[in-house]
Automatic annotation (TrEMBL):
Pfam families: COXG. It comes from the Archaea. PANTHER family: BLL0334 PROTEIN. InterPro entries: CO_DH_gsu, START-like_dom_sf. It comes from Aeropyrum pernix (strain ATCC 700893 / DSM 11879 / JCM 9820 / NBRC 100138 / K1). This is CoxG homolog.
Amino acid sequence: MKVRYEGSFEVSKTPEEVFEFLTDPKRFSRAFPGFKSVEVEDGSFTIELRLSLGPLRGDARVRASFEDLEKPSKATVKGSGRGAGSTLDFTLRFAVEPSGGGSRVSWVFEGNVGGLAASMGGRVLDSLARRMINDVISGVKRELGEA
C-alpha cells in the first residue's frame, strides 16, 4: 500500500543547527517514540524501536542512508524497515529554511507499506501514521530544546 504524507513545523534554532541535528542519526533517532538504539556505519544507519501503535506492537528495525545532502538546506533519506508483522520502504525529503528568528522544516514522506500495517486499511493506517508523525515532530522539538 502506497502512502504519502507532508507537512512542516517551526523551531527557534538556526537552519544550520537544525540541519546538523536532522542529519546526525545519533541525535535525531532519539526523537522517535520507542527508541532503543542506533548504529551508524559505512554511510548508513540502523535504528531499533519498540512500536506501540494500536495493533502495531513489537520491535522494529529501520535501516536508512542519506542521499542528496545539500548542507544546510535539504536532504533525502532512503530506507526500509521491518517489525510488528509489517514492512516499509520509504523516501523522506526535507528542507530547512530561515523563518522569523528560527527555522521552518518542510518534509515529504513517501513509502510502500506491507504486512499487517497494510492489511489494516487506509483509514486506520492513516490515523496511526499521523499519530506517529506528530510524536516524531514533538520528539524533534524536545531534542532541540523546544519543549
